[in-house]
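Methods — Computational structure assignment.
A single polypeptide chain was analysed. Its primary sequence is given first, followed by the predicted tertiary structure written as structure tokens.
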Amino acid sequence: MFHKTQGIVLNIARYNDKYSIVHIFTRDFGRVSYLLPKTTGKRSKMRAALFFPLSLLELETEHHPLREIHRLKECEQSFPLHDLCRSVGKVATAMFLSEFLSKALRETTENRQLYEFLRHSVIFLETTDKGASNFHLAFMAGLARFLGIYPNMQNYTVGAYFDLLNGEFTPEVPHHAHYLSKQQSAYLCLFRRINYQNMHLFRLSRDNRNAITDIMLTYYRLHTYDFPLLKSLNVLREMMER
């Protein structure tokens, strides 16, 4: 049975000589793997250019709940992404976020609120001209709410430590290595307010941005099953330095 839905491209992996596998987070089915023919003709409806990281697509798919890999019948862009394909900083951000989402998103069931958050985020990144270097930080902070791992940051007191493992502030040094210093914890209390509308107001140095990125990735690694080191992180950092 064929279904019409929308999707956001996460990544593409080689399958065999004739097909690749494209991983897409869809509006109606969550994360789905689709066979993608390796065609190069201009008239092909499955051109590789459609599947750039974070591409927003309208899809007609063959979907069987018991299958691991499904088939695409037709697809087309639902929102054109120009800056995400040509702006060096945004290209690097898109590559980083696509790898990040590929590891963080495991849901294979419908989650429209999460899908709408992702779609809104991609469109905002494409269209914004302010604070794009902080976008990945605001994105990771926002996504944690939809994954059910957003930390409790309401109980901060001066001199507290943030416990990364338990996701909360504590007045005493935790009995493990995964916590922030008093200074880092105080800054985290301010940084929790970051969002897409105000991210340009956070004037971060390169070192501060890198440190916050590392902290957030460590938090995800502690709270997400089998979350590895990301290969695209160094590329993101290099592009942001230009």
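Note: The two ends are 49 Å apart (CA to CA).
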